[in-house]
Design goal:
Blueprint (H helix, E strand, L loop, with lengths): L2 H18 L1 E4 L3 E7 L2 E6 L3 E4 L5 E7 L3 E4 L3 E3 L7 E11 L2 H8 L3 H21 L6 H5 L3 H16 L4 E12 L2 H73 L1 H17 L37 H11 L1
Antiparallel strand pairs: 1-4, 2-3, 2-5, 6-8, 7-8, 8-9
């Protein structure tokens, strides 16, 4: 091997050693330099770092605010109304050295498992306290409860090197076995309200119909009254006209009134009348000049065309 080759090989090893001794930490990370599992250096500021090649290693952790969704758990408030709640937390690695010492090589997965246990325990403790009811959990006041859960969880989480920034309850539901009973009660309540509305509507409709029927009766009664008044006035007017006509010519009026009687008595085909010729019924038929009438003075004794027609009708 020539001297040039040895120099080139040495340069390659030197460059590789220099590169392996450098590492970069950006603004979203924190880094630990470990030597045989022991922490030798902490790098929390972004920039370039150095380590011993092949002996030391760099472990990086996220320095941003992270999210953790908890599993659903069942709590029993002071009013014994069981609820199923799940929450989410916002946290960050506050002390990277303590975090490494607490979770070891497990990293974020081990930390989140232990953090979830802490959150579930505090949720049960806060929501199951004597001063908390289900109505409080479901009301806007539950923000105070979430702050209590955050503050009490933060104390335990600091032992893991974590800082809990916020805790929120995502859902608060009834257990599955209670949902049907609750829905049935809600349906019964809505059906009762619907029945009340229908009853009130029927009552209003009945009232409107009664008012309409009464109005109809009043209108018909008033119309009948007006009709009776008009009919009475017409009958009075007819009677007056008839009386005046009777006063003007009583003989003609008697004759006119007799004509319908003759038409009814003599118009039938299966009727028979047995009367004497001197009966008052034929008083207008016995004489061509009417009832008890005599020929007018100066007449020739001949009855004329009208008298002859009357005489022929009598015969």
């Amino acid at each position: 091997m020539t001297r040039t080759s040895i120099l080139l090989l040495g340069a390659v090893f030197l460059i590789a050693g220099i590169l392996s001794s450098l590492f970069i930490v950006d603004e979203r990370e924190k880094a630990l330099v470990l030597q045989f599992g022991q922490i030798r250096q902490v790098k929390e500021e972004p920039g370039l770092g150095f380590k011993i090649p092949f002996i030391q290693e760099v472990v990086k952790y996220d320095d941003r605010i992270l999210s953790l969704d908890t599993d659903e758990i069942e709590v029993t408030p002071s009013d014994d109304r069981r609820l199923v709640v799940d929450a989410f937390a916002r946290y960050r690695i506050a002390d990277v050295v303590q975090f490494r010492q607490a979770v070891g090589v497990g990293g974020l997965a081990a930390a989140e498992s232990r953090l979830q246990s802490i959150l579930n325990a505090q949720i049960r403790q806060v929501l199951g306290s004597e001063s908390v009811t289900s109505d409080t959990i479901l009301s806007p006041d539950r923000r105070l409860l979430m702050n209590r859960i955050r503050d009490q969880s933060r104390t335990s989480a600091l032992a893991l090197g974590l800082d809990i920034v916020d805790v929120r309850l995502k859902q608060t539901n009834l257990p599955e076995q209670n949902l049907e009973a609750t829905f049935a009660r809600m349906r019964a309540e809505r059906e009762r309200e619907a029945a009340d509305e229908i009853a009130r509507g029927n009552e209003a409709a009945q009232r409107v119909r009664a008012q309409a029927d009464r109005t109809v009766v009043e209108i018909v009664s008033d119309a009948n009254r007006q009709a009776e008044i008009t009919r009475g006035e017409a009958d009075a007017e007819r009677t007056r006209i008839t009386g005046e006509a009777y006063g003007e010519d009583a003989e003609f009026f008697g004759f006119f009134r007799s004509l319908p009687a003759y038409a009814r008595a003599l118009g039938g085909q299966n009727s028979s009348l047995v009367l004497t010729p001197e009966s008052d019924f034929f008083e207008f038929l016995n004489s061509p000049y009417g009832r008890g009438a005599q020929p007018a003075p100066g007449a020739s004794g001949a009855p004329g065309a009208a008298g002859e027609a009357a005489a022929q009708a009598t015969e």
